[in-house]
Amino acid sequence: MAHIDYYFGTQSPWTYLAGDRLEEIAARHAATITYKPLDLLQLFDRTGGIRPANRHASRMEYRIQELRRWADHLQMPLNLKPAFWPVNPAPSSYAVIAAQKTGGGDLAGLVQSFVRACWAEEKNIADDEVIRACLSAAGFDPALADSGLFIGAQVYERNLEEAVEAGAFGAPFYVVRETGERFWGQDRLDFLDRHLTKI
Predict the structure, then answer these.
(1) Domain spanning 3-196 has what CATH number?
(2) How far apart are CA 102 and CA 69, in angstroms?
(3) How confident is residue 51, by pLDDT bands cut at 50, 70 and 90?
(4) % the chain with pLDDT above 70
(5) Where are the extended beta strands (E) located within 13-165?
(6) What are the extents of the domains in the chain?
(7) pTM of the entire structure?
(8) What are 5's strand-pairing partners?
(9) Mean pLDDT for the stretch of residues 40-62
């Protein structure tokens, strides 16, 4: 049975556009997933990337075009200039970490609810009420928003270190533990699917 380490940012539009395809692929191959939210800006800094605010205008213009094209291709609503972006990803990430540790709900649905809230619903995913609503909708106790903050911060930082060690440099990023094979971007999920058929 394969295991996938899934590195992502709760504020990432590309994580949003991945939708539930990772989970569908994992189910097809009886693979398991560990969700590892992290600070993407620090990941860029650590691995030679450039923060969006510092990128050349031509790169940012192309990014907008690609987001628009992919949203249309996937038939997913997407606001190219959401009201609450950039946003602090730490509170929603801590909620994902606490939910994963507790179990009992729809973890994939929780992750997707955060990115959808940011990129399609004009909600502030750093807001406590939004976090509680997402937790509740995914079948978790909303009180997780207030618990385990210290542990959440530790795991959040450790996820960054593990991402760097694993060779991740963006999001979404998928690493198959058994083979070390890496896949960057929601547009590489088909390759991940094909890879899993071989192991």
Answers:
(1) 3.40.30.10
(2) 37
(3) very high
(4) 100
(5) 32-37
(6) 3-196
(7) 0.97
(8) 34, 175
(9) 97
The residues near 37 (Cβ < 8 Å, ≥ 6 apart) are 8, 9, 10, 89, 92, 93, 96, 97, 111, 156, 159
96, 171, 13, 54 alpha-carbon torsion, rounded to 10°: 120
Express each pLDDT in 88-114 by its tens digit: 999 999 999 999 999 999 999 999 999
Residue type, 2: A
Quick check: 51 and 44 in contact, CB under 8 A? yes
Residues of the chain with pLDDT > 90, as a percent, come to 96
Nearest to 2 by CA among 46, 34, 37, 32: 32
Task: Write out the H or E segment, with its range, that includes residue 175.
Answer: strand 173-176
- Residue found under tokens 């270190």: 161
For residues 20 and 186, the answer to whether their CB atoms sit within 8 Å is: no
Nearest to 124 by CA among 81, 83, 79: 83
Taken as a whole, the chain contains a residue count of 199
DSSP codes of every residue in 128-171: HHHHHHHHHHTTS-GGGGTS-HHHHHHHHHHHHHHHHHHT--SS
